[in-house]
Amino acid sequence: MSATLSPSNSPRVRRRGSTRRPRAVSHLPPFTQESHDAALYAIRHYLKGRTSYDTFPVSFRLIVLDSKLEVKKALQCLLLNGVVSAPLWNSERSCFAGMFTVSDIIHLIQYYYKCSSYDAAAADVETFRLESLRDIERQLGVDPPPLLREHPSASLYDASKRLIQTHARRLPLLDNDTETGHEVIVSILTQYRLLKFISINCPKEIQQLHLPLRKLGIGTYVNPPPLPPSGERPEGYNPFHPIATATMDTPVFDVVHMFSERGISAVPIVDEEGIVVNLYETVDVITLVRLGAYQSLDLTISEALNQRSPDFPGVVICTASDSLGTLMQLIKKRRVHRLVVVEGEEEERKGGKKGRLLGIITLSDVLRYLIGDVAIGEAQLEHSVPSTDPTPTPDPAHVPSETPASSEAHAEAAPAPDPAPDAPATEDTAAVPPEEKQEAGATEAEAPAPTE
Fold first, then answer.
1. Is residue 302 classed as helix, strand or coil in its secondary structure?
2. Judging by DSSP bridges, how do beta strands 317-318 and 338-342 pair with one another?
């Protein structure tokens, strides 16, 4: 006997009533101005308890150039190793003699452009020595760079203040030989390595830095002078003042002059609407010099960018509403030396144009804010921060690939092989760990900053 199921006699299945689980309570403290200030205080306190030695990678190589070396050979050495700066050594006096940086190349180009010819430059650079670069600066009326140095056992806080006070991007670390008493160049502390050290070892504090970049006053933002009553732009009017900009049709040498005159290392390239389309950097000039094409400085930016290495990582952009914590997380993940601030959705709703140039943020700006006005900022916070030791404890989950050289330092893999001659030059010095180089294709130093 068979039975058929019908709506009237089909068995009813009793379903259990659904129960909603209560949402887990967040253990993160609320984001407030007080928590932001307390995080800044904790970071500064942490840097006072750590030395420059703590940032040393386990394995690294340091390129040191003799001040008697010809500029052309020195430049080839840096380019072959993927860097654009290195410490100089005076072999006659057995002492540190300063730094050879991309600024020296910019000054050399300007000198030959104003005082000589490209043909003379091509001939003189064969015999021109590094020790003569200071003479070039005097003839150009450029102040010589300060002979900075710091001991590896100096606190990171003091090293940070030295970088801020001198507007330097890198700080040579020197010790003394116990037997001879002569100076020994140990390493180079860069802004990037210092900020990455903070982002890795202070993860909880970084999360509390939630306030927007522009509200914190980090960076330089567009603030053009008012137009005359007629509404016509006067000659030389810069709608992006005080930021130096260029277009694809701007000659390379005009941008080189901006580098030297303003002491900057990158210029945003914008279109007729002010939309950021690219970035021209000092390392791009080095590419032209490497090819021996001094005449190439008469090329337009558009033509010069065609000679840029295909490994160029691109322009890093952000908006003014992005937080400082987000920026520090980005520094932790990739090499960033500057960010171009563009108008976002918030500005677009107010009548702006998405992607239009709004500002620029350098690592100097970030470091200056993190260190801050010590006398005022910390004096106010000492009364509001608990008396317990605010020294951050590194979270192992945040540093999966880095093992400290000392208690909190970065670890690095074994030295990477030398890069190919066409590898892109980077904006930091030669004392850089191989592991980080492999992230962005460079091999002898920290990879180039996409922006500044």
1. helix
2. parallel
pTM, full prediction: 0.76
Per-residue confidence of the chain (452 residues) as pLDDT tens digits?
A: 444 444 455 556 565 655 555 554 444 556 789 999 999 999 999 999 999 999 998 888 899 999 999 988 888 888 888 887 999 999 999 999 999 998 888 888 787 777 666 566 556 666 788 998 888 888 888 887 888 899 999 999 999 999 999 889 999 999 999 888 889 999 999 999 999 999 999 999 999 999 999 999 999 999 998 888 887 888 888 999 999 999 999 999 899 889 988 889 999 999 999 999 999 998 888 777 766 655 567 789 998 888 887 778 789 999 999 999 999 999 999 989 899 999 999 998 999 999 999 999 999 999 999 998 644 334 344 434 443 344 454 444 433 333 333 333 333 333 343 444 444 444 554 444 433 433 333 333 333 333 33
Given a contact cutoff of 8 angstroms between Cβ atoms, the answer to whether 63 and 86 are in contact is yes
Residue 429 identity: T
Spatial separation of the C-alpha atoms in residues 327 and 320, rounded to whole Å? 11
d(CA 306, CA 282): 15
